[in-house]
Amino acid sequence: MDLIKIAEEAFAGEKKEFPKFKSGDTITVAYRIAEGNKERIQQYRGVVIKIAGHGDAKRFTVRKMSDNIGVERIFPMNSPFIDNIVLNSEGKVRRTKLYYLRKLRGKAARIKKKVY
Hints:
The protein is mostly beta strands. It has a single domain, classed as SH3 type barrels (Roll). Helix content is 9%, strand content 42%. It is built from one helix and five strands, in the order αβββββ. The chain has one helix at 2-12; strands at residues 26-35, 38-52, 59-66, 69-76, 82-89. A five-stranded antiparallel β-sheet has the order 4-3-2-1-5, with no helix packed on it.
């Protein structure tokens, strides 16, 4: 049994540890992008509007505003291209799927910050 676990860990590689975040939190995802033969890291900062899936298939959706246009991007949690994730602020929301933010603009789209 121990040999099987050792083999699975070897194939799985390094599991990166990310901070715990949930819907409504503002995070910055450092994502590695290959352009031709060069590689760079793109900082993608936005609000987590959805976390879905279980285990290896877990993914999260981050929404940001870019020149008054809403841009959403889905990141797999175990992607090798994610360099790191920084938790910028925790939001106070009452639901897990924040699709209603798609209809809101400007100050109406703000999320209250969690105060301890």
